[in-house]
Every structure is written in C-alpha cells, then in structure tokens.
Amino acid sequence: MSVRVLCNGWVYIQGARFFGNSNVDIDSVVAIDTEQPISEVAVMNNETNSTSVSTAFRARFVGQGYKQVCGQADVWGDGVVPEVSAHLEGALNVSLDGVYHSPVGSDDILRPWYGSPAVVEKWIHHLIN
C-alpha cells in the first residue's frame, strides 16, 4: 500500500531579523492589507511612512516565529510557518504565493488563507486525482 503525501507551503511575507541589519524588502510582502490598524511603533514615529514602519515591524515579528521553527528569521513563509518547513522530501510539495496561514485576520480577497475558496481550488485537485 502506498501513501501519497501533499505538503502545501504558502508564501505571504518574508521574515526579518529583529535586531541588526535586515535585508527584508518592505515592498516584498506578497499581499498586505493597508486598511488594517498600524502598529504602535508606526504611530510613535510620525516622520516615517507608517505603512513602511508597520510592514517592517511585522516582518521582524514574523521572523521571530520563523526562527523558532527553522532557525532562520529572514525566510519566506505564510506568516506562521516558513516555506522551508512546510515541505517534506518525497512528497508532492506545492507552494502558492500570496496565501496567509490562518483564517484569523484574513479575507478571501486581500489576504486569503489556505482555506479560502479560490486558494482551495488551486491545490485540492492534487488530493482528488
């Protein structure tokens, strides 16, 4: 009996190191909802573009989670799981851009998660065929 394994990896945001130089490109977030409330860090710095500060802070925050999972902060992932940790050797590994990890804080248009109908259509056929 053989078992087929499908591993889906989602690419939404690149993490960044919290301290020191960070090579994160704040414009490289695959999808970002600029209507979300900005972080307190962005509010405290009125001289800086708040969206850029908020995005950079988010990348550093997310990077800390990535670092706990795979040992590196400055990798791509879905906001929770780094892409490099979402795949297994020998499995059918699928990665989709612009897909967030969780339904919490997501929507089906600007910030879809892997269970959003349009996203499910892109990977479900691997389970059915």
SSE arrangement:
Blueprint: E1 6-11, E2 13-14, H1 40-44, H2 50-70, E3 76-77, E4 92-97, H3 117-123, H4 125-128
Parallel strand pairs: 1-4
Antiparallel strand pairs: 2-3
Task: Describe this protein's structure.
The chain has 129 residues and is of the alpha+beta class. It has one domain (6-128). Helices cover 29% and strands 12% of the residues. The two termini are 17 Å apart.
Q: How many H/I helices?
A: 4
Strand arrangement in the largest pleated sheet: 1-4
Helix content bin: 25-40%
Gyration radius (Cα, Å) is 16 Å
How would you summarize what this structure contains?
By secondary structure, this protein is an alpha+beta fold.
Task: Describe this protein with a few key phrases.
single chain, 129 residues, alpha+beta, two-stranded parallel sheet, two-stranded antiparallel sheet, 29% helix
